[in-house]
C-alpha cells in the first residue's frame, strides 16, 4: 500500500499554501491593512485576556509595586479557574491544559495562594 499523497486544492498542498502566503504578502505590500487573526474559541479569547492580566501584574512587580502586582496575578489566576469552570467543553480552546477538574483546582489554588501571599506578607521597615 502506497503512502497517501496530497491532492491539489487541499490544505496539505504546497502550491495552495504558497498561493495563500503570496496573497497575504501582496496585500501587505500594496498598503492594505492585514487584520490580525484573533482566536475563535471563547476559551482562547479568555486565555488571551488572562495573559494580558498576568502581563500587567508582572509589569507592576517590575516597577516595584510587588504587592499590587502579585494581587493582580492572583486575581487573574482565580478568574482563570472560574472561567474554566463556566466555559463549555467544546469552547475551551487554549484554556484547557489537563482535565477540567485539575485545571479548575490548580488555577484557583494558585490564584488564592498568590493573593493571600500578597495580603499577608507584612510591609518591610521604611527605607
UniProtKB/TrEMBL annotation:
<feature type="compositionally biased region" description="Basic and acidic residues">
    <location>
        <begin position="1"/>
        <end position="18"/>
    </location>
</feature>
<keyword id="KW-0472">Membrane</keyword>
<feature type="transmembrane region" description="Helical">
    <location>
        <begin position="46"/>
        <end position="63"/>
    </location>
</feature>
<feature type="transmembrane region" description="Helical">
    <location>
        <begin position="99"/>
        <end position="121"/>
    </location>
</feature>
<dbReference type="InterPro" id="IPR021385">
    <property type="entry name" value="DUF3017"/>
</dbReference>
<protein>
    <recommendedName>
        <fullName>DUF3017 domain-containing protein</fullName>
    </recommendedName>
</protein>
<dbReference type="Pfam" id="PF11222">
    <property type="entry name" value="DUF3017"/>
</dbReference>
<feature type="compositionally biased region" description="Basic residues">
    <location>
        <begin position="21"/>
        <end position="32"/>
    </location>
</feature>
<keyword id="KW-0812">Transmembrane</keyword>
<feature type="region of interest" description="Disordered">
    <location>
        <begin position="1"/>
        <end position="33"/>
    </location>
</feature>
<keyword id="KW-1133">Transmembrane helix</keyword>
<feature type="transmembrane region" description="Helical">
    <location>
        <begin position="69"/>
        <end position="87"/>
    </location>
</feature>
